[in-house]
Amino acid sequence: MNSSPRPIVLDVDTGIDDAWAIAYALRSSHLDVLGITTGFGNADVHTTTQNTLLMVQLLGKDTPVYAGADRPLVRGWEGPVPEYHGHNGLGDVDLPAVVRRPEPADAASFLRDVVRAHPHQITLVTVARLTNVARALLFDPELSHLIPRIVMMGGAAFVPGNITAVAEANIWGDPEAADLVFRSGIPITMVGLDVTMRARLTRADLARMNPSAIPYATLLKQATEFYIRAYESDDPSIDGWCPLHDPLAVAVAEDPSLVSTRPYPVRVETRGALTDGMTVVDARSSNPQGNTDLALTLDVERFLGTFRERVGIAQK
Ligand code: BDR
Ligand code: CA
């Protein structure tokens, strides 16, 4: 990868795995992060914005942060997920003071302006509800012709969901927004639970992070211990690790060869009694080429090797 850095906008709901995704993106020499947009999800939007600003601050960067949606497009917000991310979104760890401020523009206006300023160039990397992107598309529908690709952490194609039997959190949290994005015509790479549950950060990895060398190490070690415990208490088959959902989407935006994909038509269920938020993948062989490149396999070792090196975890 010798070409100039790929311009991206990262959409987050920081969130413990979002915090790792921000570190992965801002420490990349292959990505140029033009801005980070925030929304409700793992916590309320004020909290996710503060956590995002904190990560930017600890990473020593000046990436602009734009606060966005505080609720889904049409339904009420179901509330945060303190069981997984803590009441403060970062594992209830005591946080340092945040001195940075969000930009005055809101997330949807920023998305419109940045895409218009760089037509056909910006990859949107979404690791949260799709509300900000949906709002930008409603505001300026032509954006769908100007965004070359969305790399999305979201959905569960051929594996169970993590909120309901069939729905993954980022889609379940605003199904109408997600369906609008899937129907927009923008090419999508879906990095769903099919691959993210195979990208595992372990307690042993955390132990190999040197807090004196890395300003965010203490915070993310403690927060991730909380996250690992949450996964362990929810699923007896999980022992000593948590999935790196959001960093994997950033990694795929940087290096699509980390996953193999197949195109499928994908829509989101918005009216199901049992299936709201399901990513419905039409896998019938008679079907025409789809709107979504679905990530199906992951080069686990290559991803984890790059992840460890990028975020400052000493190799084994
Ligand atoms: C996704 O949901 C959020 O809680 C995580 O940050 C991740 O983006 C995983 O389903
Ligand atoms: Ca997230």
Task: Please explain how this structure is put together.
With 316 residues, this protein is an alpha/beta fold. It has a single domain, classed as Inosine-uridine Nucleoside N-ribohydrolase, Chain A, CATH 3.90.245. The protein is built from 13 helices and 12 strands. It has an 8-stranded mixed sheet, with helices on both faces. It has a two-stranded antiparallel sheet with strand order 7-8. The chain has a two-stranded antiparallel sheet with strand order 10-11. Helix 1 links the parallel strand 1 and strand 2 (31-38). Helix 4 (107-117) crosses helix 5 (131-139). The longest helix has 18 residues, at 217-234. It is globular. The model has no long low-confidence stretch (mean pLDDT 97).
SSE order and pairing:
Blueprint: E1 6-12, H1 16-26, E2 31-38, H2 45-58, E3 65-67, H3 82-85, H4 107-117, E4 123-126, H5 131-139, H6 143-146, E5 149-153, H7 169-172, H8 175-182, E6 188-191, H9 193-196, E7 200-202, H10 203-207, H11 217-234, E8 241-243, H12 245-254, E9 259-264, E10 266-268, E11 279-281, E12 292-298, H13 300-311
Parallel strand pairs: 1-2, 1-4, 2-3, 4-5, 5-6, 6-12
Antiparallel strand pairs: 7-8, 9-12, 10-11
Calcium ion binds next to helix 1.
